[in-house]
Design a protein that fits this description.
The structure is a single chain. By secondary structure, this protein is mostly helical. The protein is built from 12 helices and 2 strands. It has a two-stranded antiparallel sheet. It is flat and about 65 Å long. The relative contact order is 0.08.
């Protein structure tokens, strides 16, 4: 196991610890989660940068990346010059945010072009794009927990761009390893497909799109099948006996870590909806709101909690309208 993978496992454990701290109405629990999400994003960004630098050893890749980098720089200069000239003091902050968004989307388009080149040329550099999209996914989680604008589009792009990557790598994994150990490869393939379904369940539930329940319950059913297959524990692979934990090392992606994270994320979301788990605490509302929400089996308490929240929102809105809050 790579050192950076161990660091991510520790960060994931700290995120779970931060969640329990948050349930105990400790605001620092959410702060801990946010910092872990930032560090997760930075770890994947580091992998992407290192992989991209290594890929430049290939002459064709070096030429393509120099061209794409030149296009990216030129577009940024032109757009920044345009924004600077039309911006007024009142709109400068808004224009700056628009420029940053345009820059990130332009960079994303160029990275997709680069990824397609590698895919069709069968150049072994696809792992770096997984790192970039996972970085985007964790930045989206950070934005969502911090209530920053743009979280939905980051999560949307991060997950949707990872889906085709994991589909192609799963098919490739199955084709390359099936003859070496059928039982083990089938179990691991089930796990990879389950991760894809969990990602789609998380996305559709977050975006309030249809089929969220279908993806979630299908993924749960496949998880049970995978667990049933893993009970065997010892498998034959390439003529040698290995256990399921050793078999996980056959994956060359971050699908294992992503599976456990998405499994816990999606399960928690559904437990909250079914009122079997407490909602996240935030200092944005009075403490009485969260105490009533914690009584998740009492519909009357939940109704009172929503009344408190709506009354507090109205109070804040009137204070802002009258200039007491800026």
């Amino acid at each position: 196991m790579k050192p950076i993978t161990r660091i991510r496992i520790v960060l994931f454990a700290l995120m779970i610890f931060g969640s329990f701290a948050n349930f105990a109405l400790n605001e620092w629990g959410n702060t801990l989660i946010i910092w872990c999400e930032i560090l997760m994003a930075l770890s994947f960004l580091w992998e992407f940068v290192v992989s991209s630098i290594v890929s430049l050893r290939n002459p064709l890749k070096r030429k393509l990346n120099l061209v794409l980098l030149g296009v990216f720089g030129l577009l940024c200069i032109i757009f920044l010059f345009t924004v600077t000239n039309i911006a007024t003091p009142e709109t400068s902050e808004e224009k700056l945010g628009f420029f940053i968004a345009f820059t990130l989307l332009t960079l994303l388009v160029l990275i997709i072009i680069d990824a397609l080149y590698d895919f069709f040329k069968k150049y072994e550099n696809q792992g770096s794009y997984e790192s970039f999209f996972l970085c985007m996914f964790f930045i989206g989680l950070f934005f969502k927990n911090s209530r920053f604008a743009g979280s939905d589009i980051l999560l949307l792009l991060g997950i949707l761009l990872l889906v085709p990557y994991f589909i192609t790598t799963t098919i490739k994994f199955f084709k390359e390893n099936y003859k070496s150990g059928k039982a083990l490869v089938i179990v691991l393939t089930f796990g990879s497909i389950t991760t894809i379904l969990l990602g789609l369940a998380y996305l559709t539930k977050t975006m309030h799109w249809p089929f969220a329940d279908f993806f979630f319950y299908t993924a749960r059913a496949m998880t049970l099948v995978m667990i049933g297959g893993a009970i065997k524990w010892t498998y034959v692979f390439n003529g040698s006996k290995i256990n399921i934990v050793q078999g996980l090392r056959l994956f060359k992606t971050n699908v294992i870590l992503l599976f456990f994270m998405l499994f816990i994320f999606t399960s928690y979301k559904y437990f909250v909806i079914l009122k079997l788990a407490p909602d996240f605490y935030s200092a944005d509302y009075p403490e009485s709101y969260y105490k009533l929400r914690s009584k998740f089996n009492d519909q009357e308490s939940w109704n009172k909690a929503y009344e408190i929240r709506n009354a507090y929102d109205n109070f804040v809105q009137k204070a802002e309208d009258n200039g007491f809050i800026k």
